[in-house]
Amino acid sequence: MAKQGQTTINLEGLTIAAREATNTAPAEKGLPPVHLWNPPFCGDLDMRIASDGTWFYMGTPIGRPALVRLFSTILKRENGKHFLVTPVEKVGIRVDDAPFLAVEMNKEAGEHGPLLRFRTDVEDWVPCGAGHRLRFEAAGDGGLTPYLHVRADLWAKVTRALYYDLVDMGEERVVDGQPMFGIESGGEFFTMADAKQVRDAV
Question: Which of 23, 38, 98, 118 has the most crowded CB, counting CB atoms within 10 A?
């Protein structure tokens, strides 16, 4: 029996609903239009995305990458909470940090200068620029943790190894009259920190 506030939907039922929902996705994008769906809330599902990107169902890791990918396509965030959404139902899940990880990065020459492309742990390639911004938050160890905007209000945490690559690529620029250290991509400059703090830390 489901606890109060929990849904009676199980993993098999959700998988079937998710597959049906993805059949409505535009062929060129492969993502269903979750932003158009506003079904009734059916309770919370015992599903969690850990800070290392691992998806758990009832405390057990979901070991099938294709299933994780499927669920990631129906993920939605509203008012700071994450949901899996189909046209007819919405269930809440827990996300420890960001729902995705950025695990690979390529640098190429773009139309507006250098362009960084990131691959997420669910195999989405995201070009970093005005539509997919980088933000940097203070980490517990005194460093910074970068996050990449993937879509809607969903973000990917950039791995520590890629963060060091970003620092190596970084440069100083004057932003609003202040020298800042950051990274350029897609015609945008994303500030990491005050340039003096970076120099003092080196």
Answer: 118
Contacts of 63 (CB under 8 A, 6+ apart): none
Residue 29 vs residues 49, 122, 126, 131: alpha-carbon distances, Å: 24, 14, 12, 16
Cα separation values, 178 from 30, 143, 153, 174, 194, Å: 42, 20, 29, 5, 8
Record the tokens describing residue 155, joined without a space: 């973000």
**pTM exceeds 0.85, yes or no:** yes
Res 4 pLDDT > 50:
no
Chain length of the chain: 202
In 55-159, alpha helices (H): 65-72
The model's pLDDT over 46-56, given as tens digits with 9 standing for 90+, comes to 999 999 999 99
